[in-house]
């Protein structure tokens, strides 16, 4: 189902992008990230949620494309901000075309995403169209807030955020884009009530948190061909993952000081991290049992999502779409890609 | 009137920004550019246009704030993309806080700007609110297209665009933000018809073109204290202005080759431009009479704007707001700041 909705969404995305000049370095680069080997989780969630509530594919497809454009615009900007090297097995956009073009392509995608959301008025009526615009505006705001919290930790070399602060950061930075907004726009496109949207938020929030923690675990243990990102990339970047936060927290005073010195080095700064540095971080993670700790946390959130889904499922007729949503919970914690 | 509307808009902008955590490096930086010493031309245009058509300040103020947020978000991103040093007499945001924070503050401002535009539904009704959203989406798209055309010229060291191509670029990059969108949202907020909006576009487009060319002339001849940007900054940056395009076009073959070699140097690259390089560009400009050429072009566009305004003025009752709009034409070509 992921592969199928990804193909449908990609085809529609290419139709919806302005077919006009200037193409070079703008419209021709907009499909770059969406067409890479991602899972297409967001459009699949938009579509499955809408259809599980009796909406049609047409009710939600353009909205799914808009969410995909918004999300990928932020990925391009995030890659610039985090100095990332790879995105979905290929070089990041700013690595290929430079920061100016990458930032501008992202801005252009945000603009292009607005137009299908405004066309929604004709398609699904004013009330639903406006609620979807509100959800998307909130998603964009939460994402900028989450990114800022993380950038602030990076700037201050702050490795002492509590689990609660960490969860708040990924709630804003990951959950909103990947889980919350897709299910909220999906329910809304199908004409769902506010109460349904709330129940969906109780499902999507813990699921998104479990997803991100599992993603960070895969970054350390995954198979690069299946997972698609650079293994240990998070350690090289010094990304604030629950795993690394836990490892630093459990380290001896001397080890913590050495870890903080390593983590204060920019990836491509004058004094870059060495392979030894990254090896040392891996040792700290093993010693602290931080991977197991993170996986247990992910499973706890996933269990919460499963319970919320059981409640929710009672309000949906049996369908392939409901089944897809039900299987997401185990997919999120068991996936290897 | 500029000073007055700027104060009103700034007060409202501060009220409309989310009053919540996380503030640091996000909400606290959003007012940075708008509060600097700019003229406040855009909000003044929004407000004057709306009021000249009998709308109230309340009908348009939040929209003016949203346009201001959008515009300043793009200024932050443009400064990153162009490697600019100064914005309104102070260091650019990415120079103070780094590229990651600057890019994210811009994204956060785009998100924050959406909310007042959605609230417009309550304030001025659905039809007007939707048309304003469409205008803003178009503005964002045109701006990304204009920026891309310019970035492409920079990448390719292309100094042979025709006057027509140059005007098309600034139509997208400058006119839409500074003139077209403000008058279009102003007319719409006041309940103006599509025909009025079209007539306003015939006024605002040549005015915006005249404005940009005059801005480039000021960059070479202005007083830094009044003008606020770095004098000769455009030459150091190698910005594609009509003046420099004309100077390169009129140069001898040997001079043109030397000019292109200079203009291919990045400002802060391994081989930066020297003061001699910039001096040589100034000599070419003088020899070609490129400043006079550009000013004549600006005056021609301004005259077109003046004629369109005369037509337009017949549809508006006499008011201080109509008077303000009428005076804009001469302000644009005579201003020294």
Describe the structure.
The structure is a homodimer of 337-residue chains. With 337 residues, chain A is mainly α. The model of chain A has no long low-confidence stretch (mean pLDDT 91). Chain A is globular and about 60 Å long. Chain A is built from 17 helices and two strands. In chain A, helix 13 crosses helix 16 (290-313). In chain A, 77% of the residues lie in helices and 1% in strands. Chain A binds chain B through residues 18, 22, 24-26, 74, 77, 80-82, 98-101, 103-105, 107-108, 110-112, 114-115, 118, 121, 126, 130, 133-134, 136-137, 140-141, 143-145, 147-149, 151-152, 154-155, and chain B through 18, 22, 24-26, 74, 77, 80-82, 99-101, 103-105, 107-108, 110-112, 114-115, 118, 121, 126, 130, 133-134, 136-137, 140-141, 143-145, 147-149, 151-152, 154-155.
Main features:
mainly alpha, 337 residues, globular, homodimer, two-stranded antiparallel ribbon, 2 strands, 17 helices
Give the arrangement of secondary structure elements.
The structure is a homodimer of 337-residue chains.
Chain A: H1 2-16, H2 23-27, H3 32-35, H4 41-52, H5 57-82, E1 86-87, E2 90-91, H6 93-97, H7 99-124, H8 126-155, H9 163-189, H10 194-221, H11 224-227, H12 233-237, H13 242-250, H14 253-263, H15 275-288, H16 290-313, H17 320-334
Antiparallel strand pairs in A: 1-2
Helix pairs in contact in A: 1-4, 1-5, 4-5, 4-9, 4-17, 5-7, 5-8, 5-9, 7-8, 8-9, 9-10, 10-16, 10-17, 13-15, 13-16, 16-17
């Amino acid at each position: 189902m992921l592969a199928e909705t990804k193909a449908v969404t990609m085809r529609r995305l290419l139709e919806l992008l302005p077919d006009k000049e200037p193409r070079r370095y703008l419209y021709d680069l907009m499909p770059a990230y969406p067409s890479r080997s991602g899972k297409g989780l967001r459009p699949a969630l938009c579509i499955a949620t809408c259809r599980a509530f009796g909406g049609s594919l047409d009710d939600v497809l353009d909205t799914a494309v808009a969410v995909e454009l918004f999300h990928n615009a932020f990925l391009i900007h995030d890659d610039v901000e985090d100095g990332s090297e790879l995105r979905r097995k290929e070089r990041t956009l700013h690595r290929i075309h430079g920061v100016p073009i990458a930032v501008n392509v992202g801005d252009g995608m945000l603009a292009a995403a607005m137009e299908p959301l405004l066309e929604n008025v004709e398609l699904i009526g004013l009330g639903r169209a406006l609620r979807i615009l509100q959800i998307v505006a909130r998603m964009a705001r939460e994402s900028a807030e989450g990114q800022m919290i993380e950038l602030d930790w990076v700037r201050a070399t702050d490795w002492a955020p509590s689990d609660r602060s960490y969860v708040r950061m990924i709630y804003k930075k990951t959950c909103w884009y990947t889980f919350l907004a897709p299910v909220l726009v999906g329910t809304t496109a199908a004409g769902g009530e506010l109460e349904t949207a709330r129940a969906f938020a109780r499902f999507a929030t813990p699921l998104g948190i479990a997803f991100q923690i599992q993603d960070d675990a895969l970054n350390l243990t995954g198979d690069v061909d299946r997972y698609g990102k650079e293994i240990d990339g998070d350690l090289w970047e010094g990304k604030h993952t629950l795993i690394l936060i836990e490892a630093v927290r459990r380290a001896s005073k001397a080890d913590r000081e050495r870890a903080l010195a390593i983590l204060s080095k920019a990836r491509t700064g004058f004094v870059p991290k060495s392979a030894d540095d990254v090896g040392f971080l891996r040792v700290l993670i093993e010693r602290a049992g931080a991977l197991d700790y993170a996986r247990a946390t992910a499973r706890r959130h996933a269990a919460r999502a499963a319970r919320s889904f059981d409640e929710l499922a009672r309000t949906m007729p049996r369908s392939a779409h409901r089944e897809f949503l039900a299987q997401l919970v185990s997919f999120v914690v068991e996936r290897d890609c």
